[in-house]
Design goal:
InterPro entries: CHFR_Znf-CRD (IPR040909), E3_ubiquitin-ligase_CHFR (IPR052256), Znf_C3HC4_RING-type (IPR018957), Znf_RING (IPR001841), Znf_RING/FYVE/PHD (IPR013083). The chain is of the alpha+beta class. It folds into three domains: 3-119, Tumour Suppressor Smad4 (Sandwich); 129-221, Zinc/RING finger domain, C3HC4 (zinc finger) (Herpes Virus-1, 2-Layer Sandwich); 222-336, no CATH class. It has helices at residues 116-119, 156-169, 189-201, 209-218, 243-247, 259-262, 307-312; strands at 3-4, 6-7, 18-22, 30-32, 36-41, 51-58, 64-69, 75-77, 80-82, 87-91, 95-97, 107-112, 144-148, 153-155, 184-187, 225-227, 275-278, 285-287. A seven-stranded mixed beta sheet has the order 1-4-3-12-11-8-9, with no helix packed on it. It has a six-stranded antiparallel beta sheet with strand order 14-13-15-16-17-18. A hairpin with a 6-residue loop joins strand 17 (275-278) and strand 18 (285-287). The two termini are 52 Å apart.
């Protein structure tokens, strides 16, 4: 059972913030519960008499403390001699010998205890709820995605529907908020945490289960998508996901390229409206194909992998096109 140091009467804490852990197995821990505390315990293993031997004062940084020698003997602190009434700084891991030699006197290690304040300390950020709303549905984001290069954020389901309609009607995809050309879309885990915190703080902002089910049924963005567009393709030379740059002999080859952008393979060739997925394993690009039974995403982690798709297309890795071995992405069947 742990001992408790004798309090000097200064401000007390409701939690044990430090311990003195003995190096001798037969001794007990000494718990430090006050911001300033006189520690009283045995100083030798042969004596059962307790002595006041130090005063420990917690520092404002919560990571260190000051130790004042209250013993009639010298104390060794990390092998440095601390004389009577002298004060030294101690930190987690500091060794204290309660006398001038470790053979005769007991030894303790000063150990800081994790507290709710130090372990769960969070930076509080003030967020205007209006800045956490999707400009399409005007609700708090749900399964939030971020588009680039404008970096606006939308519900996955809302932007997925916008993306589908834009592909049918236009040569490029424009941001619903600022009308900039969209080149990339992907989930944003950081903003999703903020989304959840907002809804926990104000449940009145939550949508009904029916609304959530509906918007989830629209969501198609599962991994990072590279979106090609005719607009600005010549201005942004070297953008490897740009349709014109794929076919251009002047392309500088920056970034991974999709084999089906340059020529028809397996009866399919990418066009200006084709959305691309980047493989999480090799970094290569493949078209997002909803018309095939070949899996492009893992049903477990939702990650995108190109091995199965390119194996079905009989495409192998080349100097210009990263392609995974199809063995890296194989179906796992549940035992019947």
């Amino acid at each position: 059972m742990a001992e408790v140091g004798e309090s000097s009467g200064s401000q007390s804490s409701s939690q044990i913030w430090a311990k003195l852990v003995p190096l001798q197995a037969q001794q007990s821990d000494i718990e430090v519960c006050s911001d300033e505390m006189i520690v009283s315990s045995q100083i030798t293993s042969s004596s059962q008499v307790k002595h006041d031997w130090c005063k420990i004062t917690r520092n404002a940084d919560m990571l260190t403390a000051m130790m004042q020698n209250k013993s009639s003997n010298d104390i060794l602190v990390d092998d440095a001699v601390v004389r009577r009434e002298d004060v030294v700084e101690i930190k987690c891991g500091t060794e204290m010998v309660l006398g001038p030699n470790r053979e005769e006197y007991l030894s303790y290690i000063f150990k800081l205890m994790p507290s709710q304040e130090t372990c769960k300390k969070k930076l509080k950020i003030s967020v205007d709820v209006e800045h956490a709303k999707c400009s399409i549905c005007l609700n708090i984001w749900h399964d939030v995605i971020t588009i680039a290069p404008c970096l606006h954020n939308f519900c996955n389901g809302c932007f997925s529907e916008w993306l589908k309609r834009s592909q049918k009607k236009h040569s490029g995809v424009l941001c619903p908020q600022c009308r900039a050309v969209v080149q990339f879309a992907g989930r944003n885990p950081f903003l999703r945490n903020i989304e959840e915190e907002i809804l926990q703080a104000d449940p009145s902002l939550k949508r009904s289960d029916e609304e959530i089910a509906l918007i989830d049924s629209y969501a198609t963005i599962r991994s990072n998508l590279a979106i090609r567009s005719e607009r600005g393709s010549r201005r942004k030379r070297g953008w490897a996901y740009d349709g014109d740059e794929y076919a251009s002999e002047e392309s500088d080859g920056v970034g991974p390229q999709c084999p089906q952008c340059g020529s028809a393979i397996g009866g399919f060739q990418c066009n200006q409206q084709t959305i691309h997925i980047q493989c999480q394993n090799c970094g290569g690009m493949m078209p997002s194909r909803a018309d095939m039974d070949v899996p492009q995403h893992c049903s477990g982690c939702d990650g995108s992998f190109c091995g199965a798709y390119w194996h079905a297309q009989r495409v192998t890795r080349s100097e210009y096109h990263p392609v995974c071995n199809h063995e890296t992405f194989r179906p796992v069947y549940a035992a019947s």
